[in-house]
Design a protein that fits this description.
Helix content: 10-25%
Number of domains: 4
CATH architecture of the largest domain: Sandwich
Distance between the termini: 41 Å
Number of helices: 7
Radius of gyration: 25 Å
Number of strands: 27
Largest sheet: 9 strands, mixed
CATH topology of the largest domain: Immunoglobulin-like
Shape: globular
Length: about 475
């Protein structure tokens, strides 16, 4: 990570004198790489881990891309919006309800395109019409939030179907993209044929039965392509026998390890490695496991105490990842205990219902302006011109206190930002500086290398929005001790 101190500074959050900016710069002669900070803090009260993400890309597209054919809902939605614009109060309820019914909740790009259509002619709409369409937007987002934490369902009954077609059906029915990755990791990619009779099953049990039959398992390093699948190691146990399913999550104890100290027996431990996976469409921002929320019982009916009961694990989830691991600390049971009969726990999950895009044009004129969507407010603070460079200073603020940026805000470092010219060509930022941070707000100065004047560009900023908190309960059974 290349850092460069610039002579000018930013005002400190406390209002003190300007402080030197420490820029996180990205080399422009290679593929652009954004490096997020990695922080690991350990204390008796708190165990916090922040993930390190390397995100390689040459540039960002200026807007979501869709197929040449318009989505199936677009024609009807356009007509319904026109009915709401033209109708009296008595005649708009039915089209409002119908809009909520046809709204595409997945994939996220389709949801955002639908919501954009509602207010695509915002300047021309009357206050009454804006209010009517805003009610539709609120109802659609509420449905998206509700669906986000429910398990997708899948059905497919075919006696002889290629694996590639199965993955297509999964993506179409559940919004979860899966990729056959065998050929990319040097494995035999010969097409496989499956015999399936799956009727309205939740995503994870359905997928596990498919993977067990195909002798495949997830590969964790596919990035934004989707959940990758590769051949299992010989002798692997079946996934259906190991998984615990709760909504869009699959949780299993992937490993147990005992530690016995001959010097400090009070430090004897049983470590249970928890593997937490989620449907790819979910895209959680953070997952927290409080040790106090864990309860274990051995095969003799006795409780197994947790170690470090006041600790908690906070995991900031990098984009385009589909699972994480948490090491649960328990007191080491007596030697005559053969297994953990049950282990229950609760995860606190933050996940967005939306991905929103903010666009600021006429940049010099719009300095100081704000835009709001999905409970997120983005403000263009000011612009500083340097030699061959521009700094774009901005702030992101959350209206809700669901996600505290001070402790669960590292996802903001991964937000995409760029400049877009009138021909649609884009310029990625060359570095950034965090200028302020508290529970509800974060400030950044983004550095752009452009030869033209910045007022000839539109500043684009994308971020998760409509962020929701959810408690996910799990229960694991019959964990054989080492």
């Amino acid at each position: 990570m290349l850092k460069k101190s610039l002579a000018h500074g930013a005002t400190s959050p406390s209002g003190g004198p300007p402080q030197p900016l420490q820029w996180v710069l990205k080399p422009t002669f290679l593929s652009i790489v954004l490096v997020a900070p990695m922080t690991v803090a350990l204390s008796f009260r708190r165990l916090t881990s922040f993930a390190l993400l390397l995100l390689g890309a040459v540039g960002f597209a200026s807007s979501p891309t869709y197929a040449d054919e318009p989505p199936a809902w677009k024609e009807e939605a356009t007509k319904l919006v026109e009915q709401i614009r033209a109708g009296s109060s008595a005649k708009v309820v039915e089209p409002q309800m119908r809009l909520v019914e046809i709204a595409p909740l997945n994939p996220p790009e389709q949801l955002e395109a639908f919501l954009a259509l509602l207010l695509s002619q915002d300047a021309e709409l009357s206050a009454k019409t804006k209010d009517r369409l805003a009610k539709v937007e609120t109802a659609v987002v509420e449905e998206a939030v509700k669906q986000k934490f429910q398990a997708s369902r899948f059905s497919l009954s075919e006696p002889n179907i290629p694996l590639a077609e199965v993955l297509e059906h999964l993506a179409k029915q559940t919004g979860n993209r899966l990729v056959d990755y065998r050929g990319r990791v040097g494995q035999d990619a010969t097409p496989r044929t499956l015999s399936l009779d799956i009727k309205d099953q939740e995503f994870w049990p359905a997928l596990d039965s498919i993977l067990d039959q195909a002798a495949l398992g997830p590969y964790e390093f596919s990035g934004d392509e989707g959940l990758a699948l590769v051949d299992l190691e010989p002798g692997s146990t079946t996934r259906l026998s190991r998984g615990s399913y709760t909504g869009p999550f699959r949780i299993e104890a992937s490993e147990l390890a005992s530690r016995r100290s001959m010097v400090t027996p009070q430090e004897n431990r049983l470590h249970v490695k928890l593997h937490v996976a989620w449907e790819p469409r979910l895209q959680p921002l953070s997952i927290t496991q409080r040790v106090a929320d864990i309860e274990a019982v051995d095969d003799q009916g006795n409780p197994v105490p947790v170690a470090l009961p006041e600790a908690e694990f906070d995991i900031d989830v990098p984009p385009d990842s589909y699972s994480t691991e948490i090491m649960l600390p328990l007191e080491l049971p007596a030697r005559d205990v053969r297994r953990i009969k049950s282990l229950t726990g609760k995860l606190q999950v933050l996940a967005p219902a939306r991905q929103v895009e903010f666009r600021f044009d006429n940049l010099k004129k719009n300095v100081g302006s704000e835009q709001e969507a999905g409970g997120v407010i983005v403000r263009l603070e000011h612009i500083v011109k340097l030699e061959g460079l521009y700094e774009v200073h901005m702030r992101l603020r959350l209206k809700s206190k669901t996600a505290e940026l001070d402790s669960h805000g590292d996802w903001v470092f991964q937000n995409l930002t760029l400049l877009e010219d009138k021909q649609g060509m884009t310029v990625d930022h060359a570095g950034f500086e965090t200028t302020m941070r508290n529970d509800q707000e974060m400030g950044f100065a983004y550095l752009f290398e452009i030869e033209d004047e910045i007022e000839n560009y539109t500043w684009v900023y994308r971020t998760p929005a409509a962020i929701q908190a959810k408690t996910v309960e799990y229960k694991l059974k019959n964990l054989v001790l080492p």
